[in-house]
Amino acid sequence: MRIAIDAMGGDHAPQAPVEGALAAAKEWPDTTLLLVGKPDAIKAHLGDNPPSNITVVEALEKIEADDEPVRAVRRKANSSMVVAGRLVKEGEADAMISAGNTGALMTTGLLVVGRMSGIDRPGLTAILPTVDGVGVVALDLGANMDAKPEHLVQYAIMGSRYRQKVHGIDKPRVGLLNVGTEAAKGNELSKAAFELLSEAPVNFIGNVEARDLLYRNCDVLVCDGFSGNILLKGVEGAAETVFSVLKTELMSSWKSKLAAAILRPNFRRVGKMMDYKRYNGAPLLGVGGLVVKSHGSSNAEATVHAIRQARTAVGNGLIAALADDLGGK
Q1: What are phi and psi of 99, to 5 degrees?
Q2: Could you tell me the domains of the chain?
Q3: What is said about its interaction partners and assembly (predicted)?
Q4: What is the pTM of this model?
Q5: pLDDT tens-digit profile, the chain (329 residues)
Q6: Could you tell me which of 122, 145, 188, 310 has the fewest CB atoms within 10 Å of its CB?
Q7: CB within 8 A of 49, min separation 6: which ones?
């Protein structure tokens, strides 16, 4: 198995992706990791004796966070992100991972890797944390701001297959994000999508509300990219705020500090459960190869989790299964 990593993408590149690759290379010696980017910058973090299953692939350009996605992908053909995409397209890598410019990665998936036959709009997929530690697969979380009802049906099919192949859930429950659980609730998109999903080849359980999401009210959450991205940022922001306020309160007096010391193991378990790094790695489903978006602020640990997700998806034949479901590549 060969996984290409955009070593120049993300807030902490190239250090974080390189250090993550080093840790992953030791954990999975059967996987070859292709670090794509400027060789000198990558080698500065590799050390003197890097594992034999790490290879550096030269790419002398970098797509910046503020670059216009389509223009950047077209004009920076030798950028680390585009080169990684070509490796997937040409069969030299089974998957690619990047923590770089999200819009540019979506464009790379579409223009370089290529859209899968039967898919109108690929969807950005991620796992949202839940109190039971299982998580909810949600899509689309920002690849497309405007969606049609049939796009949401495609998301449901892809999300269900992803849940089956990567997480081993035989009959995942598919829910439609809405403002209420009643069938007649929502805007025109939601109402039309509800009707189509009721006839789709998935285990559709109806509308679900965001307030119940962290209790895993479904296994696959379907939504348009605009609503999904707001939901994602809201969940991340709420979690960070709660832990910040809690930390401040627990340090406010000697009594609360004593209580914090006693409860420290409990807080660590909760923090681990809600830590986005454990769920890092959002695949762009609907393109003809595995393209995984890593969080822009990913550290080495988060990079390892993204590699783990990519390994599992490749090992379980996710892309081939999606192609079969949707009419072929």
Answers
A1: -105, 15
A2: 1-119+286-329 (3.40.718.10), 121-277 (3.40.718.10)
A3: Homodimer. Probably interacts with PlsY.
A4: 0.84
A5: 999 999 999 999 999 999 999 999 999 999 999 999 999 999 999 988 899 999 999 999 999 999 999 999 999 999 999 999 999 999 999 999 999 998 899 999 999 999 888 888 889 888 888 888 888 999 998 888 889 999 999 999 999 999 998 888 999 999 999 999 898 888 999 999 999 999 999 999 999 999 898 899 999 999 998 999 888 888 877 777 877 887 888 888 887 888 778 877 876 776 666 665 566 778 999 999 999 999 888 899 999 999 998 999 999 899 988 888 776 44
A6: 188
A7: none
Q: Tokens 């979506």 map to which residue? A: 106
The Cα 34–Cα 4 span in angstroms is: 4
Secondary structure of the chain as H, E, C letters: CEEEEECCCCCCCCHHHHHHHHHHHHHCCCCEEEEEECHHHHHHHHCCCCCCCEEEEECCECCCCCCCHHHHHHHCCCEHHHHHHHHHHCCCCCEEEECCCHHHHHHHHHHHHHECCCCCCCEECEEECCCCCCCEEEECCCCCCCCCHHHHHHHHHHHHHHHHHHHCCCCCEEEEECCCCCCCCCCHHHHHHHHHHHHCCCEEEEEECHHHHHHCCCCEEECCHHHHHHHHHHHHHHHHHHHHHHHHHHCCCHHHHHHHHHHHHHHHHHHHHHCHHHHCCEEEECECCEEEECCCCCCHHHHHHHHHHHHHHHHCCHHHHHHHHCCCC
How many Å apart are CA 156 and CA 308, to the nearest integer?
Answer: 23
Question: One-letter amino acid identity for 122?
Answer: P
Return the closest-CA partner of residue 231 out of 126, 78, 86: 126
Select from 300, 257, 238 the least CA-distant residue to 18: 300
